[in-house]
Amino acid sequence: MSKKIKALALFSGGLDSALAIKLVKDQGVEVIALNFVSHFFGGKNEKAEKMAEQLGIKVEYVHFEKRHTEIVKNPVYGRGKNMNPCIDCHSLMFKVAGELLEKYDAQFVISGEVLGQRPMSQNSAALEKVKKLSGMNDLILRPLCAKLLPPSKPEIEGWVDREKLLDIQGRSRHRQMAIAESYGLKEYPSPAGGCLLTDPAYSDRLRIIEKDGLLTEENSSLFHLIKYSRFFRFAKGKYLFVGRDHEQNEKITELKDTGTLFLYGHKTPGPRMIGFGDLNEDEILFAKELFSRYSKGKGNTEVEVTINDKVYRVLPVDMEKLEQKIKMYQIVG
């Protein structure tokens, strides 16, 4: 009896990775989907789970936050337009998947990459760089554009039929959408918005963290705080994060122990705040007055705030001076 062929798939939950899995699975290969989780993308979400259900596969979540942070800091092939080290990132995912082949008794790895879909990170040269840096060589199969690339080991060995793979290239997604319809695949997410490192506003904030020498795994809470809140920078490594709404306040509360200061209203509804770094008296006063400004009191009445479990009174605020300080410290975007 011949051995069952298995493949590991890089699975974001999006259309391309779903189609790549479907193409290989329909050839009798057992596919195990790997969703890679970093501080900037991935993780359990309803759309990915629904897509996996449509495909009839199980999703395994692979946490590689620490290793990914290191390649964000020092990418071999540099970054894209923003903070995104796409070539190094894809290489790392393939590398980690390769390390998991034995665990899952799998023979090769697939992905939904399309030749030319991303001009800088998915051209022929970039795909070769990914293969080389990952150390996976010819064990990588890209089913959506395989006919445009040299045959991989899975094709040469007959694990998959090359003739049943595709030759999609370019940025248009019309073919993928038509194929998805023919397969009956629905409710797939749009291709935009997957990785925070491609977002200009987020990248601008992260560059500040990097400039201040805090782009490290030890300070990874900052990577999350800058996406959940208003961001104020007093000086190098001295920040204030302020919630905008209930959801952001909840996220800030989850991370309250990662800062040096946790501020919230005492009997007065308002934003929750985390101070990071050794804040001085003036900076703490700014935080108190900012709470008053954003609270129901709008800075016009006396309020009380709790800072690290101690209650403080905050007098009505000089709004003109406060607005000047907001303009001085706030990182807009």
TrEMBL record:
GO terms for molecular function: ATP binding; CCA tRNA nucleotidyltransferase activity. It comes from the Bacteria. It holds the Pfam family NFACT-R_2. Gene3D superfamilies: HUPs. Keywords: ATP-binding, Nucleotide-binding. Signal peptide: none annotated. Residues 230-311 form the NFACT protein RNA binding domain. Residues 6-146 form the Thil AANH domain. InterPro entries: NFACT-R_2, Rossmann-like_a/b/a_fold, ThiI_AANH. PANTHER family: THIL AANH DOMAIN-CONTAINING PROTEIN (PTHR11933:SF6), TRNA 5-METHYLAMINOMETHYL-2-THIOURIDYLATE -METHYLTRANSFERASE (PTHR11933). This is 7-cyano-7-deazaguanine synthase.
